[in-house]
UniProtKB/TrEMBL annotation:
A Gene Ontology cellular-component term: cytosol
Keyword Cytoplasm applies: yes
Enzyme Commission numbers on file: 2.7.7.-, 2.8.1.-
Gene Ontology MF term list: adenylyltransferase activity; ATP binding; metal ion binding; thiosulfate-cyanide sulfurtransferase activity; URM1 activating enzyme activity
Gene3D superfamilies named among the record's database cross-references: NAD(P)-binding Rossmann-like Domain, Rhodanese-like domain
Family under the similarity heading: In the N-terminal section; belongs to the HesA/MoeB/ThiF family. UBA4 subfamily.
Name assigned to this protein: Adenylyltransferase and sulfurtransferase MOCS3 homolog
Amino acid sequence: MEVDGEAQISELEGDIRTLRKQLKAKVQQLKTLKKHFQKNCINKLNNNEIARYSRQIILSEIGVQGQLKLKRASVLVVGAGGLGCPSALYLAGAGIGRIGILDYDEVELTNLHRQLLHTESSVGLTKVESVQSYLEELNSQIEVVTHHLQLTSDNALQILQPYDIVVDATDNVATRYLLNDACVLLKKPLVSGSALQLEGQLTVYNFNGGPCYRCLFPNPPPPETVTNCGDGGVLGAITGVIGALQALETIKIILGNTGVLSGRLLLFDGQQSTFRNLKLRPKKADCAVCSDQPSLTKLIDYEQFCSMKATDKDSHLNLLAPHERITVQEYRNLAESNVPHLLIDVRGANQFEICQLPTSVNVPIDDILKNRRTTEVAQLAAQSGGNVPVFVVCRRGNDSQLAVRHLAELFREKGLEPPRDIVGGLHAWTRNVDPEFPIY
Ligand SMILES: Nc1ncnc2c1ncn2[C@@H]1O[C@H](COP(=O)(O)OP(=O)(O)OP(=O)(O)O)[C@@H](O)[C@H]1O
Ligand SMILES: [Zn+2]
C-alpha cells in the first residue's frame, strides 16, 4: 500500500514537471508573439492599462501623466529574497515599465516562509527565474529582465547603468557598500531596506542632496557583530512591510512626488507595532565617495574592505588556529569511541529545541560573550572528570569560534585545556556525517 502510494506520488510529480516545462515554452512563445504584434506606445496608455491601473490613476498624486512616468521607468531590484519579492511584486503591480531582478541564488525550502513569490515547485530553480515567471503572469504589460549572477565590483556599473533607480534588497554589508558606491558614481537613487527578527529599517540614499550610506557609515562594522536572517531569524510579515515600503519610495521618486525618505531613517518595530522616523546626519562634507573631492572614484574590493563575504552562504569566520579546532568527522570518531568529553552547543534555546547532538549541553553564545554563564561552563568542564576535552558547536561554525576565543583564557586560568570548536557546525555534521540530521 505504502509503496504504491510512493510510486503514484512520484509519477504525478513527474507529470507535473513535464506539464510545467510545456507551459513555460508556451508562455515564452506567447511573449515573443505579443512583442512582435502589439506595439506598446510609451506615450499613451492602452485600454488594458487604463483599466488595470485605474484605481491608482484616479489618485491626484498619480494621474495619467504619473502612470506614463511609471511605464517609462526602469528599476533594478538587487536580491530576490525577503525584501526583493514584495518590492518587485508591488513595482510590477503598479506598472513600472522595466523591472530588473538580480540574484545569484536558487530557491530553498527555508525561503518560502517569507519570499512569497517563490513556491514549492520553484525550489531548486534560480530565484530570478522564479520571480520573473510570477511577475509576468501578474502583468504582461511590463518587461521583466533577469540577471542571474553575483553583483561584484567588476560588473556592477555596467549592470546598474541602464536603470533609473536601484532597490537594495540584499542581506550583506559588502554588497551594501558596493551598491552605494556604484549608485553614487552613476548618480542614481538607492532605496535601501533591511529586516531582521521583528524589526525593519528603510531609507533612500544618494537622492536630492541627501547622504549616502558611506556618509553615515564610513567604516564597516566588525564582522562578528553582524547577524543575518539565517542566524538571527526573521518573520515574513516584517520583510513584507519593508519590501512594500521600498516599492512605495521607488514609486514616489519616479513620480517626482514630495515626502521621499531621504535624509531620514524609518524604523519599524513589529513587536510594538511602532514606526519611528529619525532625522539622519546630512551629507558628509568629506565623504570618501559622494563629496566634492572624493578619494574613491572607482569601485574597490568590498569583501576585503568589510572583511566579510558578499554572500551569506559561506561567510565563515576564520578566527582560530588549527589546533583550536576539530572536524565533524574527528568529533564523530571520538564520540563513537565513547571518549569522555563535554559538548557545548552555543545556539539559542529555540534553535537547540529544533535539533541537537546527543549529550550536548546548551549554553547560548550571548550568555558566554556577556560572561553570564562562563564560570558555569568552566565548572562543567572541571566536573566532567578533570581534564576532559571540551568542544563547542553551533549551526554553521561561526559562533562556536567566538565562544572558543572568549572562553580560552578563563579555561587556562583555571588550569583547564581550552575548548575547541567543531568546524562548520551542525551544517557540516549533516553534510559529512549524518544526512538525516535536520538542516535549517
Ligand atoms: N552580491 C550579491 N549579488 C547577487 N545577489 C545577492 C548579493 N548579495 C545578496 N544577494 C541576494 O540577496 C537576497 C537576500 O535575501 P534574503 O536574505 O531574504 O535571502 P537568503 O539569503 O535566501 O536568506 P537566508 O539568509 O535565510 O538563507 C538573497 O537571495 C541573496 O542571494
Ligand atoms: Zn556620502
